[in-house]
Design brief:
Helix 2 packs antiparallel against helix 3. With 151 residues, the chain is an all-alpha fold. The C terminus is likely disordered. 81% of the residues lie in helices and 0% in strands. The chain starts with a helix and ends with a helix.
Length: 151
């Protein structure tokens, strides 16, 4: 029984020694200013490095998604153009069944040229913003208004 009491009190004594404050005689030195600045610089460098890694990962994901979408759009455009050409050829052959091959190709080319000219004219008619306005955040559009208000 006394042996058991010694065992339990022995473990408690070791726990108390672990939880005790350090001796008052041993004074821990405070970290110096250069050491603290070094730790701050190291932590800042790690944070910046992790942010750069995150930006690189996001950019990689964006570029891979962009490439996949561009490939799908390109494939869709090729298929749509194939369908367009086949449809126009069918219309030409249906409307002019007894004409020669040369006349069929000429009508086919004329229809495609007319549609292309209409699309180009529509594209040129549309007023697109300039690149400078996009880069400066639209400031170039505000300048004429502010000059007009002064006069």
């Amino acid at each position: 029984m006394s042996n058991r009491a010694q065992q339990t009190s022995g473990s408690r004594i070791s726990e108390m020694r672990e939880n005790r404050r350090p001796d008052i005689g041993s004074v821990q030195s405070a970290p110096s200013v250069p050491a603290a600045l070094e730790k701050i610089a190291s932590a800042t460098q790690r944070v910046i490095s992790k942010r750069i890694d995150l930006v690189m990962l996001e950019n990689h994901e964006f570029v891979s998604t962009l490439i996949a979408r561009a490939a799908l759009i390109s494939f869709g455009v090729v298929v749509a153009l194939s369908a367009w050409f086949a449809g126009i050829a069918a219309v030409v052959f249906y409307l002019m069944p007894n004409s020669g091959v040369v006349l069929h190709l000429a009508v086919f080319a004329a229809i495609n040229a007319a549609v292309g000219a209409i699309v180009v004219a529509f594209g040129l008619r549309e007023q697109l913003p300039t690149l400078a306005a996009e880069v400066t955040g639209g400031e170039s559009e505000r300048q004429p208004d502010s000059q007009g208000a002064r006069q």
